[in-house]
Design goal:
With 201 residues, the chain is of the alpha/beta class. The chain has seven helices and seven strands, in the order E-H-E-H-E-H-E-H-E-E-H-E-H-H. It has a seven-stranded mixed beta sheet with strand order 3-2-1-4-6-5-7, sandwiched between helices.
Length: 201
Amino acid sequence: MTYRALIPVKMLNEVKSRLAPYLTAQQRAELVLDMLHHVIDTLRESEALAAISVVSPDTAILQQVQRWGAHALQEEVHGHNPALTAAARRELAAGATALLTISADLPLLRAVDIQCMIEQSRQYAVVLAPARDGTGTNALLMRPPLALPYVFGPGSLHQYLAEAGQRGLNSILYDNTHTSLDIDTIEDLTLLQRYEACLKN
C-alpha cells in the first residue's frame, strides 16, 4: 500500500477572512504558513507517507513548501473540490493507492494521529477526521484515492458518510482534539491558546 498526502491551500491574500477584524492580512498569512509548516513537518514525522503534496494557486506558497520537503502542485482548475480532484488524479498517477487529504490549519496535529488513521485504513476504505463543529471534515483518508467525490464544505462529514454507504465502502471516524481543532475564528484561536496554556502547566 502506498500512502500519499495532499494539502490544499488558498491564496495567502484570501485566507482566514473571518479573522480580519482581529488580525492584519500579514498576521493571517503568517498564521496560515506557520500552521501549514507544522502540518507538513508532522506528516513527515509520521514516516508513513511516500510523498506529501500541497496544491495551491499561490506560487509563493508552492515555492515555500518545497523548502519544507513537500511537492508543489499548481492548482489546475478553480474551485476547492474540483482543484482537489485534479490534484488527486495526479497523486493516483504517481502511484498512490491510498490518499490522505488534510487541512493546512491543524496546529495540534501529531504524528501519532496520522499513524492511527493509516492503521484504521487497513480495515476501512474511508477514514474521516471530523471538524470541531461536528459537520465539517478536517482529514479524509481514502483507499483507493477518489473512492469518493470531494465534497469539502459545510455538512461534508455527513455527505462523505452517505456517499461511502451508497458505494458499499466501510468507513470510520477518527475524532480527537488534535485533528478537530482547525483555526477559522477568534473562538478557535482562544481555544488553541487555552490548550497550549494547559500543556505548559
